[in-house]
């Protein structure tokens, strides 16, 4: 590994101009978007930190590979290239491509879940839980308690709480658990990793009870890097080797290639059981396309095959996670409350601590994300009560974490951009007392954070007091 980890481990060949809007233009844009950053137009966003999904900059090797894409409807060699890459780097003998990660989530939920069963996981992810519930399962959070505390310092806050998992098995019976889904890393906890020791321990429990162990492996390369940096015995082990060992404990995985495969579209299921592969191929024909392309062009398969290799490079990972840490440390130095330790793909602002005067039912994270955009043109994402949705009886879910995610696309921005972001958040922090909450004006029934619309709550009236007409007029 290079001794220089602060400089980008690449040269820039092509640039895309950025356009800075005025504050008045941003105020109008956020109103038109219903104070939902998902509904902003990309052209109105100066630095876009909405997501790291599909927003990576591809390499020259990936662009070159795209020119070799085999666009045959069936049996394309581009599928063979992806299949071979997954087997070589992830260790799974079978692969079924999908158009993106949630396509893979849908397929595995339909295959493994019988209505009425239970799915434990190390904190929910929005689309994963939605597919599990639509298939008739009940989700159970079995992550360690530290994950729900933004200020708790723990090297592996994504770990499964083994006692919680055993208690659920005792309560519902192993035969009523469809599978356990272990995310590496855990997005909703702040991009927090899972240790190798914890993965092994979960595997032992699954073997003891005959439970399938699956992974949401969307950010597996970042998880491997954290193991290398934080877990005893791995300091001198390449991240690619750590990732393969990590995945050796799972029966299969869902993958959104739009993250750690460094592409703009794509995903897949990978598994060891040929029976699951056969069922996945049956469903992929119905929902995605032929089993050899899964809703993707051959050029997309080629880019993903190259990208999953590149994402496991140690120098790339040191820079990628170092850039996220750089932004987080700037905010911590300014006294801004963020989830700690800093995660792998984003800096998460603690909206509860940032806006303590805004109750959770007044959507503080959604309000904070909108304010950051108005301040600077930086687009962030809510990860709190809006993302958590409603219970089956219609009440808001009230997550312990009420966060705003500043998500860093891979190989896209420099640290100078991170300084702009930090300065913007600091400016909002300095005027935080003036920020008020939001309320729904339109609420989507499913995954509401994508398309719901909001408006600011009215300013509370001034208290009535004795005085003359002139005094009242001056007061108002």
From TrEMBL:
InterPro entries: ArAA_b-elim_lyase/Thr_aldolase, Beta-eliminating_lyase, PyrdxlP-dep_Trfase, PyrdxlP-dep_Trfase_major, PyrdxlP-dep_Trfase_small, Tyr_phenol_ly. The keyword Lyase applies. The keyword Transport does not apply. The modification N6-(pyridoxal phosphate)lysine is found at residue 259. One of its GO terms (molecular function) is tyrosine phenol-lyase activity. Residues 48-423 form the Aromatic amino acid beta-eliminating lyase/threonine aldolase domain. Signal peptide: none annotated. It catalyses: L-tyrosine + H2O = phenol + pyruvate + NH4(+). Keywords: Lyase, Pyridoxal phosphate. Its EC number is 4.1.99.2. Transmembrane segments: none annotated. It is an enzyme of class 4 (lyase). Its cofactor is pyridoxal 5'-phosphate. Belongs to the beta-eliminating lyase family. Homotetramer. This is Tyrosine phenol-lyase. The gene is tpl.
């Amino acid at each position: 590994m290079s001794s220089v980890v602060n400089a980008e481990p690449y040269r820039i060949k092509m640039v895309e101009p950025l356009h800075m809007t005025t504050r008045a233009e941003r105020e109008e844009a956020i109103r038109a978007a219903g104070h939902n950053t998902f509904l902003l137009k990309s052209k109105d966003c100066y630095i876009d930190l909405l997501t790291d999904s599909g927003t990576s900059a591809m390499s020259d090797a990936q662009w070159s590979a795209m020119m070799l894409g085999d666009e045959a409807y069936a049996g394309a060699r581009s599928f063979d290239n992806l299949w071979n890459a997954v087997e070589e780097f992830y260790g799974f003998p079978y692969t079924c491509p999908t158009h993106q990660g949630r396509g893979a989530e849908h397929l595995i939920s339909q295959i493994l879940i019988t209505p009425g069963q239970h799915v434990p996981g190390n904190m929910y992810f929005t689309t994963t839980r939605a597919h599990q519930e639509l298939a008739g399962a009940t989700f159970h959070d079995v992550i360690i308690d530290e994950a729900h505390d933004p200020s708790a310092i723990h090297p592996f806050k994504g770990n499964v709480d083994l006692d919680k998992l055993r208690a659920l098995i005792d309560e519902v019976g192993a035969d009523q658990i469809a599978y356990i889904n272990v995310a590496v890393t855990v997005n909703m906890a702040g991009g927090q990793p899972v240790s190798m020791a914890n993965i092994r321990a979960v595997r032992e429990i699954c073997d003891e009870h005959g439970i399938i162990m699956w992974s949401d492996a969307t950010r597996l390369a970042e998880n491997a890097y954290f193991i290398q940096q934080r877990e005893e015995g791995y300091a001198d082990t390449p991240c690619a080797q750590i990732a393969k060992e990590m995945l050796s404990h799972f029966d299969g995985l869902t993958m959104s290639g739009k993250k750690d495969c460094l592409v703009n579209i794509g995903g897949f299921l990978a598994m060891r059981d040929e029976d699951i592969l056969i069922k996945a191929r049956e469903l992929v024909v119905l929902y995605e396309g032929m089993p050899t392309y899964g809703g993707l062009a051959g050029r997309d398969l080629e880019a993903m095959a190259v990208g999953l290799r590149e994402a496991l490079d140690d120098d790339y990972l040191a820079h990628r996670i170092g850039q996220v840490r750089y932004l987080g440390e700037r905010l911590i130095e300014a006294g801004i409350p963020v989830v700690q330790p800093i995660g792998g793909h984003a800096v998460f602002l603690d909206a509860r601590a940032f806006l303590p005067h805004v109750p959770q039912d007044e959507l503080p994270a959604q309000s904070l994300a909108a304010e950051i955009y108005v301040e600077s043109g930086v687009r962030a994402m809510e990860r709190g009560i809006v993302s958590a949705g409603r219970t089956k009886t219609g009440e808001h879910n009230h997550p312990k974490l009420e966060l705003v995610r500043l998500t860093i696309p891979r190989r896209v921005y420099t640290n100078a951009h991170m300084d702009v972001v930090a300065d913007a958040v600091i400016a909002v922090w300095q005027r935080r007392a003036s920020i008020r909450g939001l309320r729904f004006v339109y609420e989507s029934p499913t995954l509401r954070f994508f398309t719901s619309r909001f408006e600011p709550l009215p300013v509370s009236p001034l208290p009535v007091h004795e005085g003359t007409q002139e005094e009242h007029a001056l007061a108002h």
